[in-house]
Amino acid sequence: MANPISKIKRMEIPEEVTKEQNLDEVTKAVSENKDAILKGIGFLSTLNENGMLDMTHALVKQKETALDNVMRELNKPQYSATLENLSKLFLFLGEFNVDELKQFTDKLNTGMDEALNTDESEKTTYMDLIKAIKDPEINRSLTMLLQFLRGMGKE
């Protein structure tokens, strides 16, 4: 039988080769992400110009104190109702059907544009109202408005 291996000699890579490989890897990453790095530098520059970089640095450095101050401020009685309403608002927003709401607001915006482009001196008579009901677009809008009012009135 063979003797068990008792000594393992690891292959040593010279420090200069490791540094060169690391430098090549960093250079490649910088080259591949040039746009992101330039945007990041621009972002940091803007933060620095506005004094936000120093403030953010101080906030991160003193996070315990800052968080303690924020929590102490939020525990004041004048903010309790706001915080309760904020959680209810998020739950309320979760119940919205956004696709239907978008369709409704698009139609509302179109109606607002039409109303703003109308001649203000133009008068409407009773006969104009009766004739308008026969217009398919107005009839569709009136029907939708009546269905909306009917839905609001349901118990």
Biggest sheet character: none
- What is the share of helical residues? over 70%
- How far apart are the termini? 91 Å
Strand content of the residues, in percent? under 5%
Structural class: mainly alpha
Mean pLDDT: 88
Number of strands: 0
Poorly predicted ranges (pLDDT <50, ≥5 residues)? none
Tell me the Rg in angstroms: 34 Å
Order of helices and strands: HHHHHHHH
**Shape assignment:** elongated
Helix count, per DSSP? Answer: 8
Structural notes for this entry:
With 155 residues, the chain is an all-alpha fold. Among the domains are: 15-61, no CATH class; 96-153, no CATH class. The protein has eight helices and no strands. The chain has helices spanning 15-32, 34-49, 52-61, 63-74, 77-95, 98-116, 126-134, 136-153. The longest helix is centred in the middle third of the chain and has 19 residues, at 77-95.
Please outline what is shown here.
This protein has 155 residues and is mainly α. 78% of the residues lie in helices and 0% in strands.
Write the layout of secondary structure elements.
Blueprint lengths: L14 H18 L1 H16 L2 H10 L1 H12 L2 H19 L2 H19 L9 H9 L1 H18 L2
Offer a few descriptive terms.
single chain; 155 residues; mainly alpha; 78% helix
